[in-house]
Write a structure and sequence with these properties.
Elements (H helix, E strand, L loop, with lengths): L15 E6 H4 L14 E9 L3 E8 L3 E2 L2 E2 L6 E2 L5 E7 L2 E6 L5 E5 L5 E4 L4 E6 L5 E8 L4 E2 L16
């Protein structure tokens, strides 16, 4: 019986892989007018455990007109929590509640971040290498990717 988890093996032994390129996310960035090509923004490696899934989200380093690479962001269709754990890199976790109040957390290794029920959440890579975050969530949580975030984070520290 195997009881250990080696997250690095998830990049090789996953059930589903999602790759998001710039063309998949043009509506998420404030301004894509000077963007070149269709780079990979992030990938998610997902392992199914029946009642729950865990994923390894890997966000590439980079910016689009000074706005950092980020995930699409979402909230869950069912009122469930999600767990995030920083494995590598430097980034922020953006959480927006149902009333539009938004907070950006600077991710720290060895800290566990619990996404509140019904809150929108997005990861942002603010570093110069890949950001890797382990996520654990209920398989039937559902994902609402039409959620709109009010705050953005730019390289020059300008936030709107």
């Amino acid at each position: 019986m195997k009881t250990e988890f080696d997250y690095a093996s998830l990049k090789k032994k996953y059930d589903t892989k999602i790759v998001r390129r710039l063309n998949d996310m043009k509506d998420r960035f404030k301004d894509v007018s000077n963007a070149k090509g269709n780079p990979v923004i992030y990938s998610v490696y997902i392992k199914d455990f029946g009642a729950f899934e865990y994923g390894l989200t890997v966000i590439e380093p980079g910016t689009i007109n000074s706005e950092f690479y980020m995930t699409k962001g979402h909230r869950h269709k069912k009122p469930v929590e999600e767990i995030y754990i920083l494995l590598n890199g430097k980034g922020k976790l953006l959480i927006q509640d149902k009333n539009g109040r938004t907070k950006a957390f600077s991710l720290k290794k060895e800290k566990i971040y619990i996404i509140p029920k019904k809150a929108g959440h997005r990861l942002i890579n603010t570093g110069n290498r890949r950001l890797e975050v382990l996520t654990i969530y209920s398989k039937n949580a559902g994902h609402d990717y039409d959620f709109k975030f009010k705050k953005r984070i730019f390289k020059n520290k300008h936030k709107i």
